Amino acid sequence: MKSLTALLLAAVLTAGILTACSQKGAAASPPAPAPQPASSVQTAPPAQTAPAGQPAPASGEISGDEALAIALANASVPEADAYNVKVERDGDNGIPIWDIEFETEYGDYDFEVAISGGRIVGADYEVDEEWLDRLSRHGGGPLSAGQAQDIVAAKAPDASSFLIREEHSDGRLCYEGEAYGDDIKYEFELDAATGVIYDWNADLRR
Q1: Contact at 8 Å (CB) between 193 and 173?
Q2: Among residues 21, 35, 136, 172, which one has the fewest Cβ atoms lying within 10 Å of its Cβ?
Q3: In the sheet where 161-169 sits, what is the strand order?
């Protein structure tokens, strides 16, 4: 009887000791941090700022000086060579234009440049033949018809149809012909030795 009582008492003491140790270990271990949810907020990119500078006019109009620069470039005339320059507002076939005239030592030039956009809608000039003869002495070999067409196409970028024929004028090899854009007809004479277009006409087709 005494042995059974002793065994029961030992069992109770052992259970109590184990319970106390378990509670002590649980108190010593800090709780694990709760997982943080991923943020669903997206950071917006920085706003784009407008470029600095003055905005272009809504109508796209060009000034008289700009129109003159366009005409000189198309005619391959340096600004220093031009004199008696006239730039006036006018109209052609309902299109507001800058009517441009200027003279050089080697020819007189007339251009019509659209005020809106700067497109050349008319041109007429003829180079002095004596000046061309002097220039031809320093020219290279004669150009082919294909090379002549390339020169005309660079001068009339809207042209898509070309008619070119070889001619001889006062012993000079040249190319004459026409080119056609959407609404402009071009007529030209080009010196084969120099590549100079010495007679040029551009007209709106009504």
Answers
A1: yes
A2: 35
A3: 83-92, 95-104, 107-114, 120-127, 197-204, 184-191, 172-180, 161-169
